[in-house]
Amino acid sequence: MPHRSPGAPGKGRAQYLSGKPIRYYRPRGSADVTRLIDEGFQAFNAARLGEACRVFTDKMLLPEHDTTIGLTVAGALTPAGLGGCIIELMDRGLIDFVISTGANLYHDLHYALNFTLHRGSPFVNDVDLYEEGVIRIYDVLFPTDVLLETDAYIRDFLVRWGVNAPVSTAELHDALGRDLLDRHPGCQEHSVVAAAAAFGVPIYTSSPGDSSIGMNIAFHELMNGSTLMIDPNKDVNEVCAFILAGRKNGCVILGGGSPKNFYLQGQPTLWEVYGIPKGGNDFFIQITTDSVVWGGLSGATPAEAVSWGKVNPGVLPDTVVAYCDSTIAFPLFCEYVVGCEHNRRARKELVHRRDELVGTLQRQARAARQQHPEPVDPVDTMPDLERHR
Fold first, then answer.
1. How does pLDDT run across 302-334, given as a tens digit for each residue?
2. Structural domain boundaries enclosing 175
3. DSSP code of 57?
4. Is residue 310 flagged as an active site residue?
5. Total structural domains in the chain?
6. How wide is the angle at C-alpha 75 spanned by C-alphas 74 and 78, nearest 5°?
7. Is residue 176 part of a domain?
8. Cα–Cα distance, 318 to 138 (Å, whole number)
9. Looking at 234, 248, 278, 310, which residue is catalytic?
């Protein structure tokens, strides 16, 4: 087969794109789902999902805890229509910042730009798809033009933005979201990136070069001579500053991968690197299909995270891993959450407080360094179990 881009549209393309459009699903707080989870999900991973729902609604969302909640997203969830669940949680102030793979944010842009992804079959002929110019993500199908036009929008945005300096990924995504809101009014209803900008929720990407957004930033440098750079140091310090500022900290982890680690490394960064004994996460929820036995971070349990100072040793009853497909479990989780008593909080709008909170982190880190100018025994900076009981 000759080396070239996927083919031009042919008469067979229409049959592949004849499936129903994939729309962003917005949970409404179904009482039937709440009853199913509380009364029907009684054992095994059904019970674990029920525990995750109740840890979130009965503990993480209590007003007196004022928990700063991070959501991490791995796996192709926006192409599958789950962006609507994330938008609903952001709108209600139930998550305060997001760490996602770049691919999820890139494919989210298709919805903001009013392109259509279709339900399809995973059992199609991929050579035929290539010839017809159709892209496949398992059973999600869409025309190649969607990629090309989304790429063009990103490149045009970067020129319009005109920034030639190091930025965090939160700064990039916020600017991109505001650009979408300006040029496509109302798109926050069906775009995570646009909604995050509207609601003041920072979005980070732990591997920004590993997505089409990063590919187009590389184009911007090579072809336009831009000095715009993604600075991972800014991302690390901003996420650490959010964690440090939280009265309590908790996470909802979808899948695993780099977003999971990027969030959880915040606590070790504080105690191990900066000498600030924050104390580990107070709440930990993960929905994953990865098993612990392979030794990878994606399947690592909250109990293992205790030894790293990522999870507070005294709160293991408030940690849950449900071994489920996120495309099944997360919409159920969100229906339960939206239907709970504390289903709306004041938004923290952390995207606007990044500089302020990083300044606080810097002051505390300098104070810790002055107190311990020489290397200290790790026990002196490890989180104190007693004060968190």
1. 888 888 888 888 878 899 999 999 999 999 999
2. 21-118+166-207+230-377
3. I
4. yes
5. 1
6. 100
7. yes
8. 34
9. 310
